[in-house]
Amino acid sequence: MTCRLFINRYTTPLTSALLAASLTAPAVASEAVSIGVAPAASGWYFGYSELSRIVSANSSVEISVRETGGSRENTIRLGNGEIDLALVDAPGAYEAYNGEGRYENNAMDQMRMMLWVAPSTMHWAVRQDSGIKTFEELNGERFNPSSIGGGGEYITELVFDALNISPDYQRMSMSDAADSVVDGRIIGFSYNGIPPIPAFTEVHSARPLHILSLDDEQVAKATEALPFLSRAVIPEGTYRDVGEVNTLGSYIGIAATEDLSEAAAYDITRAYWENVDDLGRTFAPAKGMTAEISVENTATPLHAGALRYYREIGIEVPEALVPPEAN
């Protein structure tokens, strides 16, 4: 509908200007939501703060960022209705929705995915002087599965169980693991993050590392057992004199519940993907991400608002990702 501005003999130049301005002014936020992210000192907190700023500036939704302990805490708080949006990792989202693993008998069937922001890549490395070239050779060796209680530790144990690999796990913090590799007290360590991982670069300079590569059969076996994981590659040259590595990755993204309005979810999803290049300029992990990649790597139902946007731009969404409320 075309809106016309009528000026009569009682309309002054000032009121005319004010009326015209009110018709052309950008829309103010019609809905305010909160998002639980990560510790303030983390790179993810910065990235999601930038994401929230960009989405808020390009949509009718105002997003406020809350510092939290990370994905698991966010999932719990999302289920309790304490936050509207949550930074989640793919394993956590899958298990929470299906009531498996860490969420056994505590399914969050109201969880809905909106989008993936960036991939996080598993690194499994050993000292070059160990002579170890394959995962099978880790059996019985003193190996750190990643930081105690972290996502990397959890993924390492799941993957190694799926591949029948049984190291002698040495559990410790990331800094202690790095020191132990350099000192020769353990054979290697692992971490889930965005390459290059600073700790790996530092250890590699002091005591050269070999980053273990999965073969195609191992990738297929692991992803079949753990559908929330995806094939990933650490490019050649990411670490000095280290070739291309085949590994596994998990995505970090944004989840909501069905309680978030369809309009808000649609607008957040639209504003994110229409401006993802801007985010990539300040938060490098988001570079190269597309809506197609996001949908392709989703294993739990989408929010109805996000679904509407993906269909609108021509993405064929698998039936398994369509939530009951959208049928």
How widely separated are the two ends? 31 Å
Pick out the low-confidence regions.
1-28
Give me the Rg, rounded: 23 Å
Note the total helix count: 12
Shape: globular
CATH homologous superfamily placement of the largest domain: Periplasmic binding protein-like II
Largest sheet: 10 strands, mixed
Please name the CATH architecture of the largest domain: 3-Layer(aba) Sandwich
Average pLDDT:
89
* Class derived from helix and strand content: alpha/beta
Task: Quickly name the level 1 CATH class of the largest domain.
Answer: Alpha Beta
Helix content: 25-40%
According to CATH, the fold-level topology of the largest domain is: D-Maltodextrin-Binding Protein, domain 2
Topology as a string of helices (H) and strands (E): HEHEHEHEEHEHEHEHEEHHHH
Strand content: 15-25%
Count of beta strands = 10
* Count of discrete structural domains: 2
Structure explained in plain terms:
InterPro entries: TRAP_TAXI. Keywords: Signal. Pfam families: NMT1_3. The protein has 327 residues and is α/β, with parallel strands linked by helices. The chain folds into two domains: 165 residues, D-Maltodextrin-Binding Protein, domain 2; 130 residues, D-Maltodextrin-Binding Protein, domain 2. The chain has twelve helices and ten strands. Strands 1, 2, 3, 4, 5, 6, 7, 8, 9 and 10 form a ten-stranded mixed β-sheet that branches. It is globular and about 60 Å long. The two termini are 31 Å apart. The relative contact order is 0.15. The N terminus is likely disordered.
